[in-house]
# Entry
Amino acid sequence: MDFWRATTVEEQIDAARGRQEADLVLKGGHVFNVFLKIWEDADVAISGSRIVGIGTYKGRQEIDVTGLYLTPGLMDAHVHFESSMLSPREMAKVLLLNGVTGAITDPHEITNVLGEKGFRFMLDETANIPFSSYLMIPSCVPATDMDTSGARITSEEMLRMQKLGPRVLGLAEMMNFPGILNRQTQEMDKIKLFFNKRIDGHAPELSDRELNAYVAAGITTEHECTNVAEAREKIARGMYVFMREGSAARNLVDLLPLVKKPGNRRLGLCTDDRHADDLIEQGSINYLLEIGVAQGYEPEDLIPLATLNIAECYGLKNVGALAPGYVADIVAFENLEAFQPVHVFKGGAQVVRNRKLLWKSAPVLSLPGQSMNMPAVTAERFKIPAVPGKSMRVIAIQHSQLLTREVHMQPLVRNGEAVSDTARDILKLAVLERHHNTGHIGLGFVFGFGLKRGAIASTVGHDSHNLTVMGTNDEDMAVAANRLREIGGGLIVVSEGQVRATVPLAIAGLMSDRDAMTVNSQLKQSGFWLHELGVPEDFSAFMTLAFLSLPVIPELRLTDRGLVNVVQFEHVDLWYE
Amino acid sequence: MDFWRATTVEEQIDAARGRQEADLVLKGGHVFNVFLKIWEDADVAISGSRIVGIGTYKGRQEIDVTGLYLTPGLMDAHVHFESSMLSPREMAKVLLLNGVTGAITDPHEITNVLGEKGFRFMLDETANIPFSSYLMIPSCVPATDMDTSGARITSEEMLRMQKLGPRVLGLAEMMNFPGILNRQTQEMDKIKLFFNKRIDGHAPELSDRELNAYVAAGITTEHECTNVAEAREKIARGMYVFMREGSAARNLVDLLPLVKKPGNRRLGLCTDDRHADDLIEQGSINYLLEIGVAQGYEPEDLIPLATLNIAECYGLKNVGALAPGYVADIVAFENLEAFQPVHVFKGGAQVVRNRKLLWKSAPVLSLPGQSMNMPAVTAERFKIPAVPGKSMRVIAIQHSQLLTREVHMQPLVRNGEAVSDTARDILKLAVLERHHNTGHIGLGFVFGFGLKRGAIASTVGHDSHNLTVMGTNDEDMAVAANRLREIGGGLIVVSEGQVRATVPLAIAGLMSDRDAMTVNSQLKQSGFWLHELGVPEDFSAFMTLAFLSLPVIPELRLTDRGLVNVVQFEHVDLWYE
# Structure
């Protein structure tokens, strides 16, 4: 991951010894030593893309960082860029402004929509940029056989994708843990391909002998822990545990006590899924550091979780520390409460100066093509005939958690149909297949969104990214779905038959081809309208909606082929006996 | 590093889940969790060569380890097997009895004598044995241009040696640190070959910008630290620091305070050079644990230094922990004060049962050939004419340190010759070239051995392993040298013209082809005679003697081509102006 001028080891030795001036010296900062967890008052000498010395140095270029706190460039241990709804280059810009210089990314979403073409798009768009984007190969395309994805990645394709370059590190989160435990042939084929590489995990609540089996299969990271006991057991069995703070799933505060305990070298920080507005307004991994410090933890104990630990986990050499031979990825902070970078250096080149991004680039170099292949719908398609005497299986969401629960409720019946009941906050939900023109539709109900009027819809719907629409009435639901079909995907808010707000997502119906500020203002407009229509202000409605179709996280989900009980791992009927 | 029965990942998953019986279950022990630094009361289930689960299990074979403490197999982070004077297979046996199941070895000594043939001998003799011997490629053959070695390894040869298999990990200790700092072409060529592999360091007292330069060159381990401040600086600059306790160089107690401090994940334990008698009577890495505990440190803080940390440093996957997927290298201790293993398992196979070794093997499969190529000598060759009015540069040894000092002393003169002066403990020292029949001899004096009568000699003489002889009189020195020449090398004690004890070392004049117990009794006899002739009982005279010719550790050394001041890195005259 070298950027800009290449140097020889001979030059680096001479610069380190002070026999020749370094290319760049950062003078007078407090330099974080991630190995000893101390701050050293010293200069940082850089030759080409590498740090060559910590000490007293002169440079051809010198930058005064007196009083600033220098840390290694922050890293995100696990992130789906698609969840920001920003293009990968635009995402990199936002991350750099937050002091994040590298990330382990899983392009799971776009690959589910567009297959290998989507993976290559993410790889190509992040080539030769001042940001280190490492890619894991999505393991679950499709995620399950419970729904219809846009693509299918076989182990043969994975073998080819493995060879796409050194930024491809291993196999991404193996969400199909039942498939591993039951040693299904296709899952075994995949893990055998990555036997000597890192295989990321995703197995919420897995424990005891089943956890042993999952880890014995070679799956050695986890970012789904929700409590200290779960995380400690997973670390004990040899896993790296990434403490996640996304836009919807927020586990950091619950897990922070681990930071002071033995085992903390096996901890990392990750965002997993984070919206553009949260990234821009709160931050990325730097925001996680802020939370940690606000909760009373020492920055010296937190920073290794965002730097050295992640580099060690993924075998990234010469990354994650400020020391001789390390890539000069450096962030200068003004204080250690609000981690807002003043300067950022990537591979020895300054990319942020006085909080301004110096790197200029178009949001996207080339688009990967159209992704909406579905028929238009009418309101009729959303009708659900009531079954007298039976209660319904309803998806109950929980704020700040991806987990849902299956609850059983009596329907509100009008004209023999089960309909949305805003009084009890039970709303109709539909998932429409959008990749292969099958016309598949799954119907159900969800509890907990608070929407009082209108409908919302999204082409972001984990993991197959069919079109999910939820509403108080069938007419608005049809308007929302049809409009998204027309504009190539996105997010939408509709009421009284009118489109109130849209966030067009031209890249696979997942990411915008516009700059981050534009996307942010579009998201703000959506947020305004969501609140206007009854959704609580602090609730990430679109993020939550996007996970209602993911049949690998307990307990009840809806796909284009109907309801799924994830614990039983099977389709279930809306109507409960 | 799999031994014995191979299993499939499918079998491992089934065994982990308890769906089929494990091959072997260790029942009822206290299982050390190296990640959390806790003991778990649990069974360890093993399938083939791998641990598959920690929990409650049934096995086809079950071994009751109730009350025993189970740890990962110990590892030695840096060891020259040759220093034990045992053949590599015999060394492996002794290490297994001490609970050491793997080691990072540097076959530096035999390679200096026999070249690539010597390296291959060490590799071949440790193939397919129940011990993990990893090899680093000696970086300094010859160590310097200050003496005459048996062989010369070029970077071209290194390139070939790199490809000898997965047990070859990288470049061994780069002792020629001046060569690195002055970016000598041949040293640069070597480090470039290993740019993405581990390069071990050896740079005592190197600090500040010179240390930066050394680390920037890619050299990232160190085992020569003698105090906490030095070790902390080296860790701060990105090095792994191995705390050494050899037979002569003993730094552990001075460095132990590091164990409780941040940075301890970058610490390891090593023996570097340790004699057979010490290994048999005190132990190896297990003895270092005993010292640590005796000094008041917690075993839970010490064991990671001998297991996980070393595995991480060298990128050894699935080694160094008791967790699913890890190689079943397991040691059972009775208590945590005296680390004497009761049972040892290597790759799932029991190799030590009730303190008895189960693995049987000849000490050597095939010898690498003769290594003594030198003329016989007469006592005349050792004469040193005195230079009136001048004092001598004398090598002053320091007990428990490899460092020597240059001291200036007046000679004892008899008949116009400078001679040994037992009253002041100044003894004559000679180094005779033994590889190429050059007849080279270096002469000098050493202070501090305590020998009162006779002479001792050795063909172990770092790093070129010429014949070093030290004595109270020239006649005994000649007897000692000539006898070693006749028997193919070894250690010898002579007095009054009589050979009192020998340790024949048929393998390159460095290692015995006999079993460990025989070597131990030969060493005991030598020790008895050394003490008889005046050497203090607690002093490793032969080990110290073997380092007097090493011109890379400060301050004054003697080679076959004369005295070397290591600080100035140049030959100096015996006589001081």
